[in-house]
Amino acid sequence: MMKNSARTRLASAFDELAGRPHPSLNATVIADLRRRSTEAEPRFSSVARSVALTATTLLVIALVGLAIWSKVWLSIPIPGVQNERPTKLPETQAIQLALKQLVFFDPAVFPQGPGRQDCTIKGGGPYPGLRIPGSCQTGAVVDGAGGWLVTFTQYWDASRFSSGPKTGTLSYRVTYDVDANGKVTQHYQGGDFPPQLAY
Amino acid sequence: MWLAERELLTEPEPNPLIAARAGDLRSFELLVEPLLDPGYRLAVVMLQDRTEAEDVLQEATFRAWRSIRSFRGDHTSLKSWFLSIVANQCRQTRRARWWSVVRGVTHVRDLAQPEDTVVQRSDLANAVAELGHEDRVALHLYFGLDIPIAEVARVLRVSPRGAKSRIHRALKRLRLDLEEQEILQ
């Protein structure tokens, strides 16, 4: 245990280090306190802090609410309004899925992506069957539910095959609906009388 | 019976702490005035600059006034509470010093203090001045301002055990440094 003399000496050492404050220090500090306390009341400060805190809290709640509302609301499809959000399913993948379902047409003659190319339409009739030069088109448009509407269309000249007038260009098309999950359902099939149905 | 009647007739003495909490500046002044001297001493020991210590004391006193409403202690803990505010203010000032160094501003020391002050000090005072900042402050609070360990810990923002070990370490260093002079026998 320290002896009292050492304790006293330590206290004296600190007195030496700190020195004596300026004689008017207390008065200066108190005067400064009085001046500043009239400028800014502590009550005002706490009220202002409370108001600022409340306003910030409300703002944060409003922003979070808005974010949740928009997230929920925008995910609901609105009838009659085109949903402009891009589908999760890529266009080429939707076309590939639709091509696999193609039975009426020969899938090999259609472009693998959106586009149009010359092709030979294989028709019915006596062996080896009709061979009609024409063009084959693949198209895809985004539907309202985030899927794709894929259309395969074949075009041929009426002078080559027609059940009616022999002028102009005739066409026949098949449309598939490919939803965002990749499920394919036939949507439409029809057009001019096609070479495939010739006998 | 007579005593009870006297007690009933005598008006209770006003409690300056309650009055200060209620926003009475005069009462606060009464409470804080005796604490200004120890506050100043602590600031000088922490900052080693008398001018800065005076500024810190002013700022700390104003902050104490602003936060007296939230003070939940009694008269016995008022001193350590006020010294905690002074110590916090000193820490802020020390951080600002570092920032001023980073920004290239030269820190100007107190010119009122003569350069040969160190020579005039006792050997023990010089040895204390050579101690690390934290050790010096711990010693000052305990021996210089005669504050109990628990309150020292509060000012230093450490556990009582930590404060005790800090003081012990500082004493040990002093004992090593001053062995020849036999200051601490």
Oligomer, anyone? heterodimer
Strand content of chain A: 15-25%
Number of strands of chain B: 0
Structural class label of chain A: alpha+beta
Helix residue percentage of chain A: 25-40%
Annotated CATH architecture of the largest domain in chain B: Orthogonal Bundle
Principal-axes geometry of chain A comes out as: rod-shaped
Taking pLDDT < 50 over at least 5 consecutive residues as the criterion, the unreliable ranges of chain A are none
Give the largest interface.
A-B, 32 and 40 residues
Number of domains of chain A: 2
Q: Could you give the count of β-strands of chain A?
A: 5
- Gap between N and C termini of chain B, in Å? 57 Å
Helicity level of chain B: over 70%
Overall pLDDT metric of chain A:
82
* N-C termini distance of chain A: 121 Å
| Order of strands in the sheet with most strands of chain A | 1-2-3-4-5
Q: Can you tell me the CATH class of the largest domain in chain B?
A: Mainly Alpha
Helix/strand order of chain A, N-terminal first: HHHHEEEEE
Provide the number of structural domains of chain B: 2
Architecture overview:
The complex is a heterodimer of chains A (199) and B (185). With 199 residues, chain A is α+β, with helices and mostly antiparallel strands. Chain A has two domains: 4-73, no CATH class; 91-197. Chain A is built from four helices and five strands; from the N terminus they run H-H-H-H-E-E-E-E-E. In chain A, strand 2 (131-142) and strand 3 form a beta hairpin. The longest helix of chain A is centred in the N-terminal third of the chain and has 33 residues, at 42-74. Chain B folds into two domains: 16-112, RNA polymerase sigma factor, region 2, helix turn helix motif (Rna Polymerase Sigma Factor, Chain: A), CATH 1.10.1740.10; 114-185, Orthogonal Bundle (Arc Repressor Mutant, subunit A). Helix content of chain B is 72%, strand content 0%. The radius of gyration of chain B is 20 Å and the shape is globular. Chain B has ten helices and no strands. Chain B has 185 residues and is mostly helical. The chains are: A alpha+beta (199), B mainly alpha (185). Chain A binds chain B through residues 2-3, 5-7, 9-19, 21-22, 25-26, 28-30, 32-34, 36-37, 42-43, 45-46, and chain B through 23, 25, 28-29, 32-33, 36-37, 40-41, 44-45, 50, 54, 57-58, 61-62, 65-69, 113, 121-122, 124-125, 127-129, 139-140, 143-144, 146, 171, 183-185.
